Amino acid sequence: MEMPKSDAAIVAQKPAIVAALQEVLPADAVIFDEAEVRAYECDALTAYRCPPLAAVLPRSTAEVAAVLRICHQMGVPVVPRGAGTSLAGGALPTGDCVILGVARMNEVLETDYPNRFIRVQSGRTNLSVTGAVEEDGFFYAPDPSSQLACAIAGNIAMNSGGAHCLKYGVTTNNLLGVTMVQMDGTVLNIGGAHLDAGGLDLLGVICGSEGQLGVVTEATLRILPKPEGALPVLIGFDSNEVAGACVSDIIKAGVLPVAIEFMDRPCIEATEAFAKAGYPMCEALLIIEVEGSKQEIDEQLALIIEIANRHNPVELRRAADEDQAKRIWLGRKSAFGAMGQINDYMCLDGTIPVSSLPYVLRRIGEMSKEYGLGVGNVFHAGDGNMHPLILYNANEPGELEKCEAFGADILKLCVEVGGCLTGEHGVGIEKRDLMKVQFAPEDMEAQLWVKDVFDPKWLLNAAKVFPLDVTASRRG
Amino acid sequence: MKPVSELELAQMIRAATGPLRIVGGGARGFGPQPKGDLLQTGGLSGISLYEPGALTIVAGAGTPLTEVEAALAAEGQRLPFEVPDLRALLGREGASTIGGVVAANASGPRRIQAGACRDSLIGVRFVDGSGTVVKNGGRVMKNVTGYDLVKLMAGAHGTLGVLTEVAFKVLPRPEVEATLVKSDLTPEQAVQAMAAALGSPFQVTGAGYVAGQLRLRIEGMAGSVAYRTSALGKLLGAGWDVAEAGQSAALWAELRDVNPLVGQAGAVWRVSVKPSDMPKVLALVGTDTVCDWGGGLIWARVPEEGDVMAGALRGLLAQIGGHATLLRASDETYARVPAFQPEPPELAVLAAGLRARFDPRGLLNPGLMG
């Protein structure tokens, strides 16, 4: 993955840039020492690193606006950063940029139960949003697996999903409003506690724009009353095809589980060795969770089990209580860690139409042999969001490149069957160069217009999302 | 003009020399009659893909809404957002198209639980004002590849491009529904009861208030609906009646289509506010209203005189947040009062910038949204 060369003229201005930033921020909020800025050299896509020129950690919308005005005037590129958990390199710096981290902005500003929303500063972590309301029986629905660490700012930038979005939707479906600062320092208030836009749906296009349109400093989020209860059932099958058919039949029968998770044999084996959750050894495993009142859970699980039995499962376990539910989830939640025990891995997140599942898994298996790299599949089957984990050895010269080529082939396959490159992680730098596989030049041009309007100088996170040759003339 | 293919539509727009008035079925347009040549999308019709097991449907923008709904019903599914039929309210006669539904982001009572049209919309194809075909999103329900122009097109009323194809995430149709009903409530009491219901774990999918009557809907599998209806009734206290099946459905069709305001003279506003602000709005516009979305959506009929309360209403909304759309009025009134709520300058400049790029010649429903 290539990044643009640092602009030597900007790097040469570093003392003046730092001095200007120090004028508008407290001393501890401007980081410019060469050793200290290394803390910001990468996000969770650790294969790529580049120390930024400087990093700033403002505490308010006013401070963010002041920083952006300075950078705008001086022509300095800015890369916004939430908690740095992006798997796609969304917060990867360039050598001539200022990293604008919102991590210190983590206050709850307003909690309103009668109207079911919470307003927070955007650096607050996903899980701590729920943490602020759960004692009163509410929760924030989007639940990316990094939710303990990831920030709402990053969730909005990437339109993050999670295991439960089949029922509750992703970030964009739970975001009511934002305060956002444009690159020139203009502060925008969009949306709020009311529903839907009075004019064009700017909020809809801001969510998922990967920090390229502005820096979100505050967010109004929809909160929901916690369901009375939830229980999973675990079902094992002797082929991926049958598991896929079972998922389709459950959905067609009119049940809407909150989660349908799928693991294939390589992933089950790795997980068992690591977490010893007591999973059956089989080709495909489904974890299906339903929620609601006891009656509702019983009714839904009975129907699901009846459908599953028609597909001759090799194993079927219905959790009887909380403890058994935890055991069923244990393996799934340890899957990434388990794969990481075996080797380095790259996690993809292409989405496919659910009907293509058996074909796509078969092709991934064939490609795995061709490339000589192992791959385990764990994913959200209800919505077709795949997470192939490709195993490779980072210390072996050439393996990362081979792994990336394999990953690119899987994502091309996802697009070929009618799906997309990324379901919830974002494009970042990781999938940037594959955008031409999914979009014609005109499709991308229409997206670039949006950036032209919000950030005419193309200073905000400009080397992401779109192939560099597509944006070269705009980035200057 | 009535193109029968996307290609033909693109050629027509490229060849156009003046404004175009874009119409789906003519069932839900409002605002001042836009100038320009009529461009009808009804020829871009037909369901091109429907996979019940994947909960997805793709159709030409000109496909009649009834055709989409019938195809879904045959598989026990539906559009989640409960499309209102506003023909009687607006005095229109056309047959609603699915593209028109998207252009208006038309969403009914279930919006509070299942999201708006824009939340179920997962893909679009459209022709922009230069005659270029653009696609965004796709046919899968989780997709963060590139910017989400899908949301931007929903509710753009054709001003950024002419939709040619739309794709939706759909949902199973529930087994049964029931509605708790209680009459003679003040707006304050209604808002409180709706907040209590929507804050409960009983999954209320409709919360409306009309002529002093409060309605709370529960949907799902039979046993669960029976339990939740009873549990919610207990939570809210005495005096609730239960309407079931067709009787329940009729209550929601009436509210969804704003029937209580049909057939009476006057201007009609559609107001979106924070639910607990509903009594403040009613105190201003009077009680000739239909309230939905737990109080967050207010349809109000006011006398057609002066500025039809635009100054007072939009002034109030500037303080408390929200927006008001003038949905029905005479041309004389529309000449004085913009149909859409004027935006703050910093947002208006962004909207204008987007229109200038998506429609550089200003051909597509010019002036409709501002």
Poorly predicted parts of chain B: none
CATH architect. name of the largest domain in chain A: 3-Layer(aba) Sandwich
Give the overall silhouette of chain B. globular
Q: Specify Rg of chain B, calculated over alpha carbons.
A: 21 Å
Number of helices of chain B: 14
Structural class by sheet pairing and helices of chain A: alpha+beta
Beta strands of chain B, count: 17
Q: How many strand units of chain A?
A: 18
The shape of chain A is globular
CATH superfamily annotation of the largest domain in chain A: FAD-linked oxidases, C-terminal domain
Looking at the overall shape, the CATH architecture of the largest domain in chain B is 2-Layer Sandwich
- In order across it, which strands form the biggest sheet of chain A? 15-12-14-13-17-18-16
Q: Tell me the domain tally of chain B.
A: 3
Going across the biggest sheet of chain B, name each strand in turn: 13-10-12-11-15-16-14-17
Q: Give the overall average pLDDT of chain A.
A: 95
Most extensive chain interface and residues per partner: A-B, 94 and 92 residues
Unreliably modeled segments of chain A: none
The CATH topology of the largest domain in chain B is what? Uridine Diphospho-n-acetylenolpyruvylglucosamine Reductase, domain 3
List keywords for this structure.
heterodimer; A: about 475 residues; alpha+beta; Uridine Diphospho-n-acetylenolpyruvylglucosamine Reductase, domain 2; Uridine Diphospho-n-acetylenolpyruvylglucosamine Reductase, domain 3; Vanillyl-alcohol Oxidase, Chain A, domain 3; 3 domains; seven-stranded antiparallel β-sheet; five-stranded antiparallel β-sheet; 16 helices; 18 strands; about 35% helix; globular; B: about 375 residues; Alpha-Beta Plaits; eight-stranded antiparallel β-sheet; about 25% strand
